[in-house]
Structures are given as C-alpha cells and as structure tokens.
Amino acid sequence: MSGGGFIRLPGGSVVVALSLPRPPHGARAGLYDCGCRVRVLVHAVNRQRALTRLRNLGLRSVYLRGNTEPPTPDEITAVLHHPDGLVWREAPDDDTESWHPIRALLRPQPARPAVETEPAEGNERPAA
Q1: Is residue 98 in a domain?
Q2: DSSP H helical ranges for the chain
Q3: How far apart are the C-alpha atoms of 68 and 30, rounded to whole Å?
C-alpha cells in the first residue's frame, strides 16, 4: 500500500502526495529495480482528478487511503511552481534532491540498435 495524503488549497484545488514503488521502466531502470520508492506530487482540481492523472500515465494501481502523509509546505510550493503540476523525487526524506518532471520517471528505455552479424562461412552468396 502506498503512503500519502492531500491538502486542500484556499482556491479549492488540492495537492496530493503519494509514496509509490518506482516503476520498472525509465531512464535508470537497471539501477532502481530494487523496490525503491518515489514521492509523487500532483496538483489537480480534486483528489479523484489527481489520481486519474497518474493512472492515465500508466501508474494503474494508485489509490489514496487516508491522509497519513500529507504534503509539506515545501512540497506544495514545488508542485505549484512546476508548469505540469506533476513532479517526483527519488528520496522522499532527502531535502537536497531536486524535484523532477514526471516524464523523466516514465521515459521509455531507448531502443538498442540491432547488431549486424557477418554471414557464416558456407552461407555466402556468390557475387553476381
């Protein structure tokens, strides 16, 4: 289960904070398949819309149960100042790590170029 919470802002919108397992794909997939967690912040009109934004990005089993870990004032400031309103960071307890846009977490791995192999002996075609 993910830990998280939300806070309602004076304008009526909400900021939802969730601690989720790091997705198995992304820019650094090989290093972080160990079950590391990320802290994700979403700014949206309501809680349901915030969770829908995450589900539409491929994080399908995202639920907010309770309000055990609401966002801190620093986290609220970070998500409000980001143009997408959706940020994450690897070490939730480390205040020195900066927040990253969500596309950096969900970036697909670059395709590996196919290795050309030379034809084996005996399979060579005669020159025409």
Answers
A1: yes
A2: 47-56, 73-80, 102-105
A3: 31
Instruction: Copy the structure tokens of residue 51.
Output: 């969770």
Residue ranges making up the domain that contains 52: 6-24+33-106
Give the count of alpha carbons within 13 A of 105, CB side only: 23
- 113 backbone dihedrals φ, ψ, rounded to 5°: -65, 145
How many structural domains is the chain composed of? 1
Give per-residue pLDDT as tens, 70-110.
Answer: 999 999 999 999 888 899 888 666 777 788 888 777 665 55
Nearest to 63 by CA among 50, 74, 75, 73: 50
pLDDT digits 0-9 by tens, 37-80? 888 999 999 999 999 998 888 877 788 888 888 999 999 999 99
Cβ atoms of 69 and 4 within 8 Å: the answer is yes
Q: Which residues contact 57 (CB under 8 A, 6 or more apart)?
A: 102, 106
Asked whether residue 113 is domain-assigned, the answer is: no
DSSP secondary structure letter of residue 70:
P
